Predict the structure.
Amino acid sequence: MTCDNTGRSGSHQSVIQAASMPLFECVPNISEGCREWVVRALADAVSAVQGVCVLDISIDRSHNRSVLTLAGDAGGLSDAVVTLVERAVALIDLRTHVGEHPRIGAVDVIPFVPLGGATMAACTALALDTAKRVGERCGVPVFLYEEAATVPARRNLADVRRGGFEALEDRMAGPDWSPDFGPSGPHSTAGATAIGAREVLIAFNVNLASDRLEVAQAVASAIRESSGGLPYVKALAINIATRGVVQVSMNLTNYKSTSMAEAFLAVEREAASHGVAVLDSEVVGLVPTAALPVAGAAHLRLRDFTSNSVLETRLAACGWGQALP
């Protein structure tokens, strides 16, 4: 489910006062979606950090995964991430975690994104500094990915997460998977964390009117870039047991080159070739106005989509009315 929230922050006034500073987005993915109180506790801890505003909290029971969307200055976000990982280590045990989404850590992935006045170079520097702090203070190994990657084989997040938490110890025992920061082996309960820098990404899921996982797998394979499909699209098939349907879960890494509408139509077309219709779709986290089709959210059959699902709306509520370039 995607929870309705107001993106409250304990340091709202200080955030507004710092609005002239370079602004960054941070989107931590947490391996917990069944115990809502844990996710809320983590969000509350982050919202208490000066210079940070919690824009959105998305909690998904089917994936057993949650996504926080944060915005703030570099120092505030770095402090917030360290606080988040410290609390998550205490509250989440991956040895008992079961979910549909791939993961290697209690806080699985932490991307930084440049917004108003921020550059990718500054974003990468922020990722490196934060990764070092997390490795030293939290006892969790950190792999750098995307623009922050120091090893070409780790640039793609899917390569970093291959095998999940369960395969992490064996992988890290090999010569090619020493972490960038932190201990040489995985944390016993919190695994490892991937920290990186990237542009705005749209987490976009399309649900099929079927429980046939093989159909979703075929569709995901046909549309993802790595299989010769749409550029800037990553896709995998997920079983949504709570609804009795299957899902094509996508990351659109460049929505200006491959739009949500194009991805939706591609899924619809491929599913139809297997005799399956599209049921609806959903956005995880927030989406920039520019990424939405001219015809509006209804064109994509988006579930539970409101103005609070739009990135600019949430930024304006925190005092950044013109934060996106």
